[in-house]
């Protein structure tokens, strides 16, 4: 995060060396470098960190509440609904104050997420929620396409850039507009984290422990909406951050629970957006590309790789070194048997086959009795 922050503040036009960053921050409006750093780059970096933290935490809340590692805002209709709520007044030429945009985004996100849960039976089946959410998201995206057809050329460019998620031309006013929503969401996250650990056990076990699963799931969705919608109103739907950040948190802390994963997921989300914003601003300079395109480009293959690696880890833990597919290696396996034991196995019919099957009772008193009994039966048969 420190390296990404340093690159975000120093690289660009004008270039500000690292050793001059403190002076540029102190000068403020005194020099061109000070104006660019304090009025453009610092608020953009702060917004990237805050937006990434909100999206990462919301992704973990959705995945844990629905017990599905693929449950992300983009697949549940939440991000598409928030984008529709913000884009519709712009296309329909409805003049609204900027302070109402987060409310419109929250209304659209609540519409998309609520339709998903209602159509899927309030999340009784994780797979049903995911499939239903994909259908709702597709319907909302179709509505967005209809709005884009109705828009004129200037509005179309603005909507297109907004739908990809962009941090361009963001100022301190955009950053300060997020703090009231964070003051509501952060305490709710602290209270929600222990309940998420209970929901992972399943609805029946959660009910047995005194947690009403459906109400807890609706509360988790509401918290995720409060985290996602204001960010979407300012930056647009920055894709796949809510998918990648929770998996990074689980990857580096596999033995932890939702309580510990939540801050780490927020931290990884901030890192992902801050890192993706550097090539978004510099890769095709002087033209800026949307940061959402870079998060999707980097996040999808990285998330798939983390999923595959996470699926392999439990089998590795279940089969430690020195064990076989049927269980741990028996004590003394692999060592050379004594000559007396080897001769006794040669004399007794079937003893070698039983040893191969894992019967090492010949080293104990009961094993010797069994061999004597079998030898006596063989002599009587002869």
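-> sequence recovered:
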């Amino acid at each position: 995060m420190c390296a990404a922050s340093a690159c975000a503040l120093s690289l660009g036009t004008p270039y500000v060396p690292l050793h001059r960053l403190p002076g540029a921050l102190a000068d403020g409006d005194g020099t061109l470098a000070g104006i660019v750093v304090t009025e453009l780059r610092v608020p953009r970096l702060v917004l990237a960190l805050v937006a990434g933290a909100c999206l990462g935490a919301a992704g973990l809340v959705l995945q844990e509440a629905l017990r599905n590692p693929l449950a992300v805002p983009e697949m549940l209709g939440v991000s598409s609904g928030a984008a529709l709520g913000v884009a519709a007044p712009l296309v329909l030429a409805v003049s609204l104050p900027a302070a109402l945009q987060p409310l419109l985004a929250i209304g659209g996100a609540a519409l998309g997420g609520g339709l998903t849960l209602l159509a899927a039976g309030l999340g009784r089946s994780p797979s049903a929620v995911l499939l239903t959410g994909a259908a709702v998201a597709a319907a909302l995206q179709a509505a967005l396409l209809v709005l884009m057809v109705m828009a004129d050329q200037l509005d179309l460019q603005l909507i297109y850039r907004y739908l990809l998620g962009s941090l361009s031309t963001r100022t301190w006013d955009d950053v300060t507009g997020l703090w009231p929503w964070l003051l509501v969401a952060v305490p709710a996250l602290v209270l929600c984290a222990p309940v998420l650990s209970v929901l992972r056990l399943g609805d029946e076990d959660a009910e047995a422990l005194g947690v009403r699963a459906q109400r807890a799931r609706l509360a988790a969705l509401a918290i995720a909406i409060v985290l996602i919608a204001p960010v979407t109103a300012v930056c647009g739907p920055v894709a796949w951050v809510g998918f990648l950040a929770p998996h990074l948190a689980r990857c580096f802390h596999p033995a932890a629970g939702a309580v510990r994963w939540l801050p780490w997921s927020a931290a990884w989300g901030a890192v992902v957006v801050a890192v993706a914003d550097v090539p978004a601003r510099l890769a095709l300079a002087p033209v800026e590309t949307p940061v959402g395109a870079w998060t999707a480009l980097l996040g999808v293959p990285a998330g798939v790789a983390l999923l595959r690696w996470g699926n392999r880890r439990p089998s590795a833990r279940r089969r430690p070194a020195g064990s076989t597919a049927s269980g741990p290696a028996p004590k003394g396996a692999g060592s050379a048997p004594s000559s007396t034991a080897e001769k006794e196995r040669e004399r007794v019919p079937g003893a070698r086959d039983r040893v191969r099957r894992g019967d090492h009772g010949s080293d104990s008193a009961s094993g010797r009795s069994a061999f004597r009994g079998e030898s006596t039966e063989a002599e009587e048969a002869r």
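Residues 315-382 have pLDDT under 50 and may be disordered.
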